[in-house]
Amino acid sequence: MYKGLRVAVVVPALNEEYNIAATVYGIPDYVDNILVVDDGSRDRTFMVAQAIDRPGLEVVRHPDNRGVGAAVASGYRRALEREADVVAVMAGDGQMDPADLPQLLDPIVTGQADYVKGNRFARAEVWRAMPQSRLVGNILLSLLTRPASGYWHLFDSQCGFTAATRRALSAIELERIYPGYGYPNDLLARMWVAGVRVVDVPVRPIYGPLWRSGISLRTAIYPVLFVVVRSFVWRVSASASGRAASRVEAC
Q1: CB neighbours of 40 closer than 8 A, spacing ≥ 6?
Q2: What are the helix (H) ranges across the chain?
Q3: What whole-number distance in Å separates Cα of residue 62 and Cα of residue 162?
Q4: Would you say residue 233 lies in a domain?
Q5: CB count, 10 Å around CB of 121?
Q6: CATH number at residue 195
Q7: Which of 19, 49, 166, 217 is deepest in the core (most CB within 10 A)?
Q8: What is the Cα–Cα distance from 101 to 73, expressed in whole angstroms?
Q9: DSSP structural state of residue 118
């Protein structure tokens, strides 16, 4: 437990057989449950994850690749079933520093927020650590996600290092989260409609020497732009129809 809260960490993983063990072993001991979600990997990710000797570890497997958003949603649902008070997300590729996890949890402990997300741009080293392709894409998508989500004070919309309360996750329809790479943008819009208090905190950007960018206009930027536009339309429509009446405070 962390300061009286039962904590679960969801680890979405796709073809991470060489990183998943280090990622899981790096998660702090105060985390009660670790839920690795193998999203249809074609390598040995599932077998490696199952062999890890760590208390509270559970491995969930998608037979087919559904997308990172679907993997996170599966982890969220299982964490709620395990009665977690707070659910964090840490990717299976080792690009999130476990030492930053308390920074995401503390605003929840103090009652400042119901959903906390990492902001790598709040750390000066991001300009030399993050590959140029990601810098450009993240800045563009972050600026567009502000009006789309309604959270004008947030930045680094694509950072998946997050922590959410049980109340926040119960206030949204997890099965409707966008299944692919653009899920953080869609999730923020859903949080806004549900009245969830969201803040971002500085987290360290991590990119290894062998990291290669999978982001391109074709594979990521264009699809996420579609999600951003769709999220804006959905948020405005949902708010106008009164769906925002189901606030997180009522959970």
Answers
A1: 14, 62, 63, 64, 65, 66
A2: 20-26, 45-50, 68-81, 101-109, 126-129, 132-149, 166-170, 183-193, 222-240
A3: 22
A4: yes
A5: 20
A6: 3.90.550.10
A7: 49
A8: 20
A9: E
Domain that residue 195 falls in: 7-250
Query: Does residue 2 lie within any of the structural domains?
Result: no
| Cα(25)–Cα(22) distance, integer angstroms | 5
Is residue 213 assigned to a domain?
yes
Tokens (6 digits) for 142: 């972050």
Is residue 1 in some structural domain?
Answer: no
Which 3 state secondary structure label does DSSP give 6? Answer: coil
Q: What is the pLDDT of residues 181-227, one digit of tens each?
A: 899 999 999 999 999 999 999 999 987 654 444 445 555 667 888 89
DSSP H or E segment with residue 89: strand 86-89
* Measured distance CA(223)–CA(86) in Å, rounded: 30
* Domains identified in the chain, total number: 1
